[in-house]
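Let us practice reading a record.
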Amino acid sequence: MNVDQETLRKLVTADLAETLIKVGLIAFLAIVCVRIFAPFANLVILGVILAIAIYPLYQGLTRRMGGRRGLSATVLVLALLLLLGVPMVMLGSSFASQISEVHQSFEKGTFAVPAPNPKVAEWPLVGERVHAAWSEAADNLPAYLQKNSEIIRGWLRKALLMAANAAGAILMFLAAIVVAGVLMVYAEGGKRATERILVRLTNPAEGASLLKLAIATVRSVAAGVVGVAFIQALLLGMGFLFAGIPAAGVWAAITMLLGILQLPALIVSLPAIGYLWWAEDGSSTGMKIVFTIYFLIAGMADNVLKPLLLGRGVDAPMLVILIGAIGGMVTGGILGLFVGAVLLAVAYKLFMEWVDSRSPDIVPTAHVDSIDTDTAH
């Protein structure tokens, strides 16, 4: 009996050691793979989101080009780089140059707020108060800058870092468009592999259902919420840039944030129209009329874009999207604004799908209450 126990102990010890070695090797391999993939994680995730969002457009283009998938992806990528990349680069460079100019003028001691135009006092409702506050700031600014120079330097350094991050985000977005093009060419194989993984984690029915749900949610949020805000921000941003509105890149970013928050872009475009007409910048009346019409159309473009893009697929609650967008922006900057909203919406829909897939023998509370009520009557 003692011999049998000793043999059993050795067998258990050997099996345990072998199991620990296997688990250790798997954990080591997983950690190494994660560390290798980590530098490219944001790029790949954004590329996957873009590929899913624009894949229907790619399919239509492929059909028109006789099924040539590689050529269709190349044409679509070049078109997106031209239509989206050029405005983003222009707005980003404008934002960076303005921040740099403010920093240099502060370091040289030449930074100042110009005195307001007398016409400012003629603005309806708020003109006199704005003119008074503006005049006070222009008169008292030198003393304020001298008193709080260190604090202001700190904020300017943060602004320069923000400008650098914005430039990096633009390059990342352009690279993600190229990655999305490659992924779309091999989309069928990627879809089959993803479905196999989900089926292995769940079962054949739920695996296919979860994949469809994730794809629909990505398209709904990426195109209907973030996409609309992004397009409207580019439209207004380019208009601000050509019209000579100060800080065009900053106002474009604010427009995008307002769009994700489901607030009207007219909050930004209407003050821009007011600045355009009251600023003495030498522009002709005809050009001011053209830009005014453009700002009004671009400011209300979401009323046309939302019916076209929103409602495709599955909609997540707006609160989830807002939390994802704001949290993503805090943790990941401009790209986080886009990726955070999409990922959190997908996670929410998958979680709710799991919650709703309860066992059929569980009777809903509302149904039990109705049965009890009927019995009592």
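A brief commentary: The radius of gyration is 28 Å.
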